[in-house]
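User: Quick sanity check before I run a bigger batch. Here is a single chain. Can you write out its predicted 3D structure?
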Amino acid sequence: MQSRALSNGLWAVSKLGVDDPAFVGAFVSEARQKLPSFEAQALANTAYALAKLGHEDAAFMGVLLETASTKLSDFTEQDMANVLWAIAKMRHRDTTFVSLLLVEAKLKLTSYTAQSLANTAWALTTLGHKDAAFMGDLLREAKPRLASLGGKNLTNMLWALATLGHTDETFVGAPLEEFNPRLASFNAQDLANTAWTLDTLGHKDEVSMSALLVAAKQKLPSFTAHALANTAPKLPTFDAQNLTNMAWALATLDYHDAAFMSALLVASEPKLASFTAANVNQMIFAMNKFNIGHAEFKRALAARRAQRGRGN
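Assistant: Done. Predicted structure follows.
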């Protein structure tokens, strides 16, 4: 098969949501030798399709990105957004490739759609790739287009700023103007995430924060036992940040589920070594809010905070 046909076939399978590991494996085997002949769009579509299908092959992705790095000038903004989203989705870290891609992306940011800008911010945050200059340019492009973004994308943009530690008071105020009319369409988790993000950014907007929390509490029926029951089995797979964000969100919403919090603490114990000072503070806040004793766990948190204070 020719490279374009290979790429188009995989793209179609991913769009249809067909779970066929045998086909994907055969595609990867066939494409591996032909990657140098893939055009920019075919490379981006292949990466995107593999990510959508959940097919992780680090060796293949390494060759694909190496090939893509020589053709970045041919990538459209959509190609760049797609390949960056793909490697973030697969947690495939390649700092050299991402840095090269951002050099090219910076030249084309004015042609990015609002969705591509939001996806790029999410991908960079997920990869932990900090580039303050690029983020500044991205935010300048995103600000006048925020009205075209959905609530979740607005939240993701703020989450990216908070997680990357990129403070931009001018930008932060803009999404809040878009949030207030849309709060009724937010689910409780989105509202809690937004509240956490604003708190992390240190953005003091009492009107917006109050509106967020009021709306969140009205949505609590959608965030009760059923939602938590679905989440509880997945807690062992959560990293420190996700665990403490969940605890903080529940505490902020003043929603206490004793069984869920107990499971969350159990899942947190083996991951205490990776807790940052902020993670420790979030967990202590939640435990105090819900009057959770668990003296041994609190001592472990205090010890971890002391270690972080010593730079460990």
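Residues 204-209 have pLDDT under 50 and may be disordered.

User: Great, the batch can go ahead then.
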